[in-house]
Design brief:
The chain is α+β, with helices and mostly antiparallel strands. The chain is built from 14 helices and 25 strands. Strands 1, 2, 8, 9, 10, 11, 17 and 18 form an eight-stranded mixed sheet that branches. Keywords: FAD, Flavoprotein.
């Protein structure tokens, strides 16, 4: 019996497999496709903290090096810039706030890491038709073939409704009538190569929106909001598509590399854990892309699932720990839905009142700074905060102050990702991802780090505190030394006291 079967070999599934292997847990990854689909940019925008997760499996640095770094997001109404957003770093991360790189290239880099990892077995052309479970394990069926596993991770994308139905998991939400035309084109746009630009009601797409993202190799990704009855083939044939492109780039040479038309959805699974099966990525949630919260949040799902599965499979925690996967990641999904749904309601108002509100806000925002705060062009991805998790020990001296301002990050404290800073020849996040880390204290089986210097400064630490950091680099507790055992027990979901083993 294999420890884990992963259904879906996309970035979320392969990330989970690599992270499990890092903890010494073998997995089999099944995908219905015969191989990779290398066409189109798809999910292009990778956040700093996702690059950090990929760094743990040897991929993050290369994704960052090959991707195009951007640090500013600008928003316009017609021809006027309303505001720009830059992105804070509480510490000194080696990674930029965002890089743009095609999903196909990201998958190539993940595949290379998988090929070098003997604990990961990827099987293409294996369409999973059934997932069943009993007290001892999970049975995964691919046609006439059956696989038995202790646990399964469903990362098969948003169209795995049959498998969700078998698990008794609903997928409520809504779909949007307007379509979005997406084009990858290669050209030169001086001054546009390191910024995300969002346009409300530009003269070249009146009444709707356009988003422009720079990508490596002189590529630009352009998203136009288009009517529900938009016909890409007809526009291409008539020459209107060329005219649409030239309204943005002017009279300069370009190569149209890929086009597609999407309808966006906002949906969330009712359960992220059903017994021995966990749901992750698009199988668990679908968001509109204005905020880059899809694949980024899916990779965060993968890390959360991987360390908890590893702790349970290695006898370091009881199976009840897995329920915290649902609690934490479902809460993250609800936050992402709230943020992206608010964006879509502003971009595509669902009724006359909200359409009038949007028109008024945009008109006033040209001259009124207060109105600019109401303009929603997409709040970009940020890691969720597990302040209400059963694994987190609250600290009354560090109350969570709610969703931070656009472009900001929460103050360090329980439930928040620990800021990254250099520590000797390594860095704080890298140390944290080797297991449970105690900063300023000690406990059997845990790595320890002094609470001093830049580490203490970036945390805003007080004398006598011990910072308990989980294997996914989230702060589980800030407590006195005598309370560390209780905080560690809580952080693994119960009374098991063996909280750490070495990687691999």
């Amino acid at each position: 019996m294999v420890p884990v079967v992963i259904v879906g070999a996309g970035p979320v599934g392969t990330t989970a497999a690599l992270l499990l292997a890092r903890w010494g847990v073998p997995s089999i990854v099944l995908d219905a496709l015969p191989g990779r689909d290398r066409v189109g940019s798809k999910s292009i925008c990778q956040h700093r903290d996702v690059l950090d997760i990929w760094a743990a499996v040897g991929v993050g640095e290369q994704v960052a090096a090959e991707g195009l770094t951007w640090t500013t997001a600008r928003t316009y109404h017609r021809g006027t810039e309303l505001f720009s957003t830059t992105f804070a770093d509480r510490g000194r991360s080696p990674f930029p706030p965002f890089v743009n790189i095609s999903q196909a290239r990201t998958e190539e880099l993940l595949d290379a890491a998988v090929a070098a990892q003997p604990l990961v077995d990827v099987r293409w052309g294996h369409r999973v038709t059934a997932i069943e479970q009993d007290a001892d394990g999970v049975t995964v069926r691919c046609g006439d073939e059956e696989l038995r596993a202790e646990y399964a991770l469903l990362c098969a994308g948003g169209r795995c409704g049959e498998l969700r139905d078998q698990l008794g998991v609903g997928f409520p939400g809504r779909s949007f009538d307007d379509r979005f035309l997406i084009a990858d084109l290669r050209t030169d746009l001086p001054g546009w190569s390191h910024e995300r630009r969002f346009f409300f009601d530009p003269v070249w797409n009146p009444g709707r929106q356009v988003l422009v993202h720079p990508c490596p190799d002189r590529m630009f990704r352009i998203d136009w909001q288009v009517p529900a009855d938009y016909d890409l083939a007809a526009e291409r044939e008539s020459g209107a598509l060329d005219a649409r492109v030239r309204q943005i780039i002017g009279d300069r040479p370009y190569e149209l590399v890929w086009t597609s038309v999407y309808r966006f959805h906002s949906r969330c699974a009712t359960r992220f854990r059903v017994g021995r099966v966990l749901l992750a990525g698009d199988a668990a949630h679908l968001y509109s892309p204005f905020g880059a919260r899809g694949m980024n949040s899916g990779v965060a799902d993968a890390e959360n699932a991987a360390w908890k599965l590893a702790w349970v499979l290695r006898g370091l925690a009881e199976p009840e720990l897995l329920e915290s996967y649902h609690v934490e990641r479902h809460a993250a999904a609800q936050e992402n839905l709230q943020v992206t749904s608010a964006t879509m309601d502003f971009l595509v108002p669902p009724d006359a009142d909200r359409a009038a509100f949007r028109a008024d806000v945009l008109a006033r925002a040209v001259t009124d700074p207060a109105a600019r705060a109401q303009v929603d062009s997409g709040r970009l991805y940020e890691p969720f905060w597990y302040v209400d998790s059963p694994l987190t020990t609250p600290d009354p001296q560090r109350p969570f102050r709610g969703r931070p301002p656009r472009g900001s990050v929460p103050d360090p404290g329980p439930g928040v990702l620990v800021p990254d800073v250099p520590v000797g020849s390594t860095r704080l996040r890298a140390l944290a991802r080797d297991g449970f880390l105690l900063i300023g204290g000690s406990a059997p089986g845990c790595a320890s780090l002094p609470l001093e210097g830049e580490v203490a400064e970036v945390l805003g630490a007080r004398p006598g505190e011990v910072w308990v950091v989980r294997p996914d680099a989230y702060v589980a507790a800030v407590v006195p030394q005598e309370q560390v055992p209780a905080a560690l027990a809580r952080a693994v979901g119960g009374a098991v006291d063996r909280t750490r083993t070495a990687v691999g």
